[in-house]
Structures are given as C-alpha cells and as structure tokens.
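cache lookup: miss for this entity combination. No prior model stored, computing from scratch. Input as submitted by user K.M.:
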Amino acid sequence: MREIASLDEIFEFLEEFVDGQGVDERTALCINLVAEELFTNMVRHNQGGGDEIVIRVDRVDGQLRLELIDTDVEDFDPETVDVVPVKSGIEGRRPGGLGIHLVRSMVDDLKYDYQAEDRRMRISVTKTLET
Amino acid sequence: MLEIARNDNGVISLQGRFDASQVEAARAVLTTIAESCTLDFTDLTYISSAGLGLLFATQKRLVDSGGALKLVNLNPHIREIFQIAGFDNIFEIA
C-alpha cells in the first residue's frame, strides 16, 4: 500500500528473499536501505498516484536487482536531484536529497524510465553480491 | 521497531531499526534533549535517511545553543552510512 507504515511489510518481504538466496548481511542491509529510500520518496512525492507501488527483487548473475514501479504519477528522474555537499560541516548542510545520495552511493547501477502513456515511473537498481 | 531509553548516567540508548516509520516516535524523545549528550548505538541495527535527518535536526538545534551530540558504538554498517552521508563531519563519533 502507498503509506510509510507499509515499510515493515516491505522489510519482511526482502528478508524472506535474501534469507532464501543466502545473501550476505551487508548487501541485505543495503537493499533494505535502497528499497526504503525509493519507496518513501514515491509515497511522499508521487501523491495522487495509484493505490499500490510494485516492488520486485531478483537475483541475476551475482547481482541483486531491485525494481519499484509507480503508476499515474508525474515524471521525476531521481538523477536530477542536487548533489549533497557531504564534505560540508553542519552550517553548509540542509535537509533533503540525502536518501537519493545514499542510493546512488550504495548501488552499482540506477536506471530510471517513465512511460507517458500510462504515467508509469520505474526505477531499477543493481547491487553486486559480496563473495 | 525502535526503542529509545535514557540511562541513569544520562546516555540515551537506541535499539532496533531507525527507519521512516519510526521517525515521529523518535522525534518525541529527541526533541526533549536540551543539552549535550551521548547517544549509544550499540543495539541500533539499521538507519535510513529519515533517521539521519532527525539526528541532523537535533544536532543543528543543539549546536546553535552551544551543545552537541556524541555518538558511540556504531556498528560497521551504520558507520559506513554516516561516512557516505558525510555525517562524520557533523557529529563526534567515538
């Protein structure tokens, strides 16, 4: 469902997947974080969207692939979010943009596409498993 | 689930997962911090940008009034998150 309270359900879904796949702990935590950041951004910024946000996770050739799909929403590419000045002290920092910064830093690849016909946003990321 | 408790020695301990669904409950506690104090992360297993944002707001408020938070016992994953976020420039981490 499109609400922050759904996070527990998402974490349970991901935990079941990573346990079944024998995914290492660090990668599992990263995927939890990435899923939360992308999902909460969709909940907060895609207001008026469809009832559900679809989350898929898969393991392909030593990588985890996570995909989130939201429909009936505006086009908003997360890659356009301003870079966070991480080297600044507290006076140079402002709230915002940190979630996308964490996602960019923790995954190997992030792809965004938007289909205007059904106003569908899809974000997919891949993360290489640790050996 | 996140639990926050103030110990007898004034240290505030965080236990569990500090995700977006826990922010309002955490805000109710962290807004009561009026002076410098230590947050013990020994039993904190996860933090996202939602938790980081609330810690940042608390730190900003305290720094503006001459105080600061000190963070101790971060596990390696959470320490990495703090480094990626650049929060090691904002907090004293021991």
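stored under new cache key. The interface with chain A takes residues 17, 19-21, 46, 48-50, 52-53, 56-57, 59-60, 63, 77, 81, 84-86, 89-90 of chain B (CB under 8 Å).
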